[in-house]
Design goal:
With 73 residues, this protein is of the alpha+beta class. The chain is 36% helix and 11% strand. β1, α1 and β2 form a beta-alpha-beta unit. The relative contact order is 0.18. Keywords: ATP-binding, Kinase, Nucleotide-binding, Transferase.
Length: 73
Amino acid sequence: MSFEWSLPFLEPGSGQSSTKHALIILNQPLSLRLLQKLWNASEWRCCADGGANRLHDELATQEVSSADDVRTR
């Protein structure tokens, strides 16, 4: 069995959609480039199952002043 995902909202220049997207970050590897695309395309975001730790670790590699706040929330 195989699946095919249609993710046009991640394509550059796809325009604004009336569909609202949510992002749940789990404790799984995720490339920073993909994370940025998903983050920007989502209206609502949350972390679960260690996802805040994963987000903290990714933000720590970037110049973000509030990266340390992620682990304590």
